[in-house]
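Ops channel
N.P.: pipeline sanity check, posting one input/output pair.
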């Protein structure tokens, strides 16, 4: 059976070199691809409010992001699993972490895993 799916997105398709070169999103010149929304007051920071950047294009923040990648701490992943997210613990995810090209850490992968 054929089905139709309606995808509603906040913004249009974008195909800019700012979006395809790692870290260039941070120099995004086309303000129409982003919008900001205020955070809730941050208790640990004197209740200051910060502007959060969001993508105003198909794919949202996942389209405009800087593609910087850092692995989280083992305890964070294990906590996700402990609170009910089976398969999201460190031991299960580690094999995927190893597949991510990580040229800056080439010399360190042996030591740091
Ligand atoms: C400039 C910038 C740089 C970043 N750099 C990095 C980085 O280097 N490394 C990193 O790990 N993370 C980075 N991030 C964060 C990362 O991009 C986000 O945490 C991640 O993309 C969030 O994914 P998501 O699926 O939750 O939301 P999104 O990817 O934003 O997905 C939300 C979806 O909902 C749609 N949508 C939103 N509002 C509506 C609406 N009203 N109606 C219909 N559809 C709507 C959006 O179009 C989008 O498709 C960056 C973010 C920004 C903005």
């Amino acid at each position: 059976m054929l089905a139709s799916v309606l995808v509603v997105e906040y913004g249009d398709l974008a195909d800019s070199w700012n979006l395809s070169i790692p870290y260039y999103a941070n120099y995004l010149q086309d303000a129409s691809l982003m919008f900001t929304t205020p955070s809730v007051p941050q208790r640990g920071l004197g209740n200051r409010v910060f502007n959060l950047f969001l993508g105003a294009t198909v794919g949202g923040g996942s389209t405009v992001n800087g593609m910087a990648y850092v692995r989280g701490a083992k305890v964070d992943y294990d906590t996700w699993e402990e609170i009910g997210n089976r398969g999201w613990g460190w031991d299960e995810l580690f094999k995927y972490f190893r597949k991510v090209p990580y040229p800056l850490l080439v010399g360190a992968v042996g030591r740091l895993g």
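N.P.: looks fine end to end. Residues 74-112 form one domain.
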